[in-house]
């Protein structure tokens, strides 16, 4: 958080780590106390407040560290004069939009103050809600600071803040100007404007064009944080970060290598499996490629795999596991879609995604076996090494078992399961494996996770505001009417849906894609008689493949940066995996039994 003064930086870090700890501790206390009939009064309210604080304080930390999610197309501009101009424009626009959001959030706080609601801990609710406008105002200053390296550029960035309020003074032509501003905010994505800023700018402009209060955008935060499922996302992300920062990756690689390394292509199978395990916890955020790429790529090359195959495998495997529990996008899709259809719950969606997720993993592994057979003969299998490697990785291997056991038992909620996962990961890596020092290193790990989750939750918050405008403007209804009038074949609709989601999944960040597109796609699928749970699997499988789709798939840019490989060259290496996984996607789309058989067999279809 180098963009903040040292004292303020430490204060924000303390708030984030404390919020993370309490967000984990409260559900754990409820889960443990339930057996003895004990319940913490007001814990649900406190969890909502902590999620709110984690969202905005984490968003401030992400702004200071330049970690807010952006389109990968911004990397094409380069570092010359056009790049500096684009970064100044993106930062200035971000400062203006954040300032307007701060003012809108202050209006929300004032409305909450008028309600006079008192939390069970004795504090007025509005005092804790002050985190919203304060963090957003600080974000505006941080964005202006990042506009340039010199004072003139930074002062020019600060001027964007009062200019952002200028449209509110207009008395005529309000709608036309608002639509122009919405278009500029959308186009600014190409210059590197954070996605949450662009979406917030579009939403603010559209509400302004209708004469509606812009406070509608931050007001959607309350509907989001009130969900009992949402706080599970940062907790599971925290568990993933703890694993990524420890030696868990090396232990898992050793374990899988010992068991499958003797097979033809065993190293490729190991790489795909380890990446899938990590992606289930990191949610396709790119952490898998960053954390494991430097470990797996040289191992593949050492075993005789070609450079192209190795790069393609690591890049493609970075999004495997997106459908497997406890994947964060699955939880989020269930959260968004459950508002329209109660059948789309997280447990049903996890059961439905199990076979399709394993299918995509198996297809990648099968291609690796084929390549391994041509490249190098199998290495000998040593039972002693396999058992020793399994014992060394026992704590990491037990984590998915713990989550699935709690999740399917029905004894804990999704939030309590996520809290148990984070507590277990901390205990395993800090006190059992002793890879992370609980005092010197763990707070830093949680701070990294907080910044990422702050960026994601900020994005979800403003995406909910944009979705609210789309619903108010009856955009889903208009799209539904057009589809019914022009598309009459279910097969054609599914094919068009695949193409649309693949393209959008390659340029949109996955969490914003879910929040914005799911409410539009769900009624369209219902019109053609597609089971809502099967539709959710199709939706997420397309986004998983979108990470690899040229020219702007996220995994392509991450791998290009991580391994120093030009993008056009990387496209060629990824193409075989894209074709193979595309075949799996078509099978998932047109064979609904693949998704629905297991939930129906378990009585949850």
Describe what you observe in this structure.
There is one protein chain. With 605 residues, this protein is mainly alpha-helical. The chain folds into 2 domains: 6-225, no CATH class; 233-436 and 473-601, no CATH class. Helix content is 75%, strand content 0%. The chain is built from 27 helices and no strands. The protein has helices at residues 6-34, 43-64, 81-115, 125-129, 131-145, 151-164, 174-187, 195-209, 216-225, 232-245, 248-260, 266-282, 287-302, 307-317, 328-337, 346-375, 383-392, 394-409, 414-432, 442-472, 475-486, 490-507, 510-527, 532-546, 554-563, 567-590, 593-601. It starts with 5 loop residues before the first helix and ends with a helix. The model has no long low-confidence stretch (mean pLDDT 83).
Name the descriptors.
605 residues, mainly alpha, 27 helices, 0% strand, globular
Shape type: globular
SSE topology string? HHHHHHHHHHHHHHHHHHHHHHHHHHH
Number of strands: 0
Radius of gyration: 24 Å
For the termini, the CA-CA separation is 46 Å
Q: Structural class given helices, strands, pairing?
A: mainly alpha
User: Segments where pLDDT lies below 50 for 5+ residues?
Assistant: none
State the major sheet: none
Task: Kindly estimate the percentage of residues that lie in beta strands according to DSSP.
Answer: under 5%
Number of helices: 27
Residues in helices, as a percent range: over 70%
Overall tally of domains:
2
Q: Give the integer mean of the pLDDT values.
A: 83
